[in-house]
Amino acid sequence: ASALVTGALARIAARDQRADGPNAVAALNPNALTEAQDAEAGPGQGPLTGLPVMVKDNIDVSGMATTAGSPLMRGNVAVCDAVCVRRLRESGAILLGKTTLHEWASGITSVSALHGAVRNARSPGHVAGGSSGGSAGAVAARYVAAAIGTDTAGSIRIPAAFHGLYGLRPTHGRLDMTGIVPLCPSQDVVGPIARDPLDLAILMDVLGGQPAGAFSGRIEHGILRRARVGVLRALFGNDGQEAGVSETCLAALERMRRQGVELVDLDATGLAALAKAASTIDYEFAPAIAGYLRGRDGLSIRSLDDIVAQTPPGSDLAETLKRRLLAARQPEAALGLALERRAELRAELERLLQDHGLTALAYPTMRMPPARIGARQPGFENVFLSASSGFPALTVPALPEDAPLPVGLEFLGRPGTEATLLSIACDWQEGRALTC
Known about the structure:
Blueprint: H1 2-15, E1 25-28, H2 32-41, E2 52-56, H3 83-90, E3 94-99, E4 111-112, E5 116-117, H4 133-140, E6 146-151, H5 157-162, E7 166-169, E8 189-194, H6 197-207, E9 228-232, H7 240-258, E10 262-266, H8 271-277, H9 281-294, H10 304-309, H11 316-328, H12 332-355, E11 360-364, H13 384-389, E12 393-397, E13 408-412, H14 418-435
């Protein structure tokens, strides 16, 4: 354990803050090495004993500040661990530190006034994706084997896709969110990012508070030989760079077909627009953050009004926060309409899966490749399918590990089918190892 922690700290020191470094680390746990030494002296029975992991800096770690990437939260020192952190510790994991993110988890390029821009660990001139960009960067830079992020509208899957990693958004409500800064409680989830899908399965055992193997033991090797996957053609772009991403994802699906998957083309026209209309982030953030801040002392903010007043005007973030403040003041009918769209979305996804006898649905995680640092990132429409419905989704790398700009292919399943999605990923990983 000590050697793993020492090695991770050395890699961070050597790379993270270089001009071309990922800037993935928000803060290091000053007790990490001591905790590793204690793990070596203990019985060492946990599934993650001695393994360094990192968590996104909107997740409470006792004794460390939880900033959500905002200078306004510097003094927000956690007095206890988030449930997910407690479970990681109970499994024997060593909390190495916290990762950078998009400010208030409110963007997909992982830029914040507190830490600056997170750079793509695979291509430093490009964005890392977000909002869990630091978590993906820490894994891609090999600081740690796995990291924890949160996902409200793509925030695990986008950065995982942009780094050629596996990122799981679990079924909404499956994992405990206590001790995590909220964005939209009806969409927020916590989940893992890793280089190996089997590691995600082990982390689901841990994060779910289950005995070792309770989840990971359900991985079905060989599932690709009997899976039926629906290809949502309307979610594949046809113009410019979108076409290149689509071709990459379709080529990956063709390789899966050669591994035994049955592909079913589906007409999903209007599905992405429906999913976007079913998102309730704008309506939920103001009351959610006010509730969180009520229990936090020593801060200059108590509400979204305070945050907006103390955020420099003119930025994309400032406009986003203002929009959410205005949305929270809308009549309840506006939220009700979005919830009606959500019910329609869930029904349509269930219909597609049921009527066609499908194991999962497939589409590009992002329709566009990573943007250059400082540019806006388009192409995120598809991530709302899982975020707005609450159905689980998993992004897998569509290209070989040495590809300069990775592309993610996403699989969505029925609620509670994370093990099935990870089984697909494990078979895909084995196939990539043989063919790439």
